[in-house]
User: Fold this.
Amino acid sequence: MLVGVKVKKIRLKRGYSINELSDRSGVSKSYLSYIERGIQKNPSLQVLTKLANTLDTNVEDLLDNNNTAIDGIDEDWVSLVEKAIEDGITKEEFAGILEYVKFKKRQED
Assistant:
């Protein structure tokens, strides 16, 4: 899991808005947004420490790349799913989209 996805997941679990995390951690809102959206993929140890302390976790947890569920999957697919999650698409909606695509493909055959 990318650092930004982890930060966002923990932030939401703790009930913080992006503004609140920014204020509490001292990390600018724009930089935090870049991290969460994967634009900034390698934030400094100093920034990670601030975020970890504020989120009541540790840097190792933010950096943990335990990708067992997604090992071997093309990075573009992972990014696509992460983007869908970021955009608030539910599992049910995503499954519905897949069913629609299958339906359209059957019509083409």
